[in-house]
Amino acid sequence: METTNHEQNFQPNREHKSSVFSLLFSNPDILRELYSAIEGITLPPDIPININTLSDALIKGKINDISFLIDNRLVVITEHQSTINSNMPLRILQYATKIYEKTIDFTNVYKEKQIKYPKPKFIVLYNGEKSYPDKEVLRFSDGFMNTEGLTENDEMTLELVVQVYNINHGHNPEIQEKCKTLNSYSYFINKIREYQKTGLTLANSVECAVKYCVERNVLKDFLKEHGSEVSNLLFYEYDFDTHMAVIREEGREEGREEIARNLLAAGSSVEFIQKITGLDLIVIRELSR
Fold first, then answer.
1. In whole angstroms, how large is the CA radius of gyration of the chain?
2. Sequence-ordered list of residues with C-beta below 8 angstroms from that of 278, at least 6 positions apart, any chain
3. Separation of alpha carbons 117 and 175, rounded Å
4. Of the candidates 287, 223, 286, 281, the residue with the CA atom closest to the CA atom of residue 259
5. Which of 84, 55, 86 is nearest to 167 (CA)?
6. Which of 24, 25, 86, 121 has the fewest Cβ atoms within 10 angstroms?
7. Coarse DSSP helix, strand, coil percentages of the chain, rounded to the nearest 5 percent
């Protein structure tokens, strides 16, 4: 494969923060173990891993993904601690393009000879609190318009497949059995949530979970080495997820107000608009001015 030396020059973007997930699994040996468990294979330790994670996070503001080259494959693994976003295939398509730009010498695309590049693999690990299947597949083609009437013989000229795995404690036991680090990580996150449900603050829940896991040799070395950093990152992650939820809610509110404005322009009554949008009558009357 013809490549540039870009993969040796990735610099962290200080405007973004790593996640606990990316901090833990950026260890090449642990990452090899995780990938092997997901794929159901055994890769020998002498197969190199070239981590080339971009500073442009898949979730803006937080780097919770890991991109790497292994065994002639380009693999992107990202973790979600909130609801799975159905637009992940589209977002990963943008991300993958940037990765290929970093790892392939694009001056060669104008040559007659076919250049070679690693086959991609896109994986999302779901670690949220809402119910989700052990495994799900998201496809780029799911978002195509005007697909009514397509048959199996109709070719999708552009496709991207994302495999989603639920890594919450107790889910996908085969994968978690093969990757002890993943199992320990899921256990640790679950323990934090258990403490929160008793009424403890997030700070106290993290502190108790770290102590509990260290005493039981769960991520002991990692937590002892990165204890304070883990706590700070978890506070940021939880605040970030809350912030994103607020943004989504504000977006829905703006959408309802836009619908109300359109209905007002069409001459609909305030009462009818209130029934359709669920907005307060006072808000609708303000929009009509």
1. 23
2. 256
3. 28
4. 287
5. 84
6. 86
7. 50, 15, 35
Tokens matching residue 262: 């359109």
Contact of 287 with 261, CB cutoff 8 Å: yes
The domains of the chain are located at: 6-143+157-254
Token pair, residue 89, equals 């295939």
Structure tokens at 86: 């159905």
Amino acid letter at 65?
Answer: D
Going residue by residue through the chain, which has 289 residues, state the pLDDT in tens, using 9 for 90 and above.
Answer: 333 333 333 333 334 456 889 889 989 999 999 999 999 999 988 899 999 888 766 655 556 789 999 988 999 999 887 778 888 999 899 889 988 888 888 888 888 888 889 999 999 999 988 899 999 999 998 888 877 777 766 777 889 999 999 999 999 999 999 999 999 999 999 999 999 999 998 888 999 999 999 999 999 999 999 888 888 778 767 665 655 555 555 566 667 787 778 778 777 788 777 766 777 787 888 888 7
Tokens of 147: 């697909």
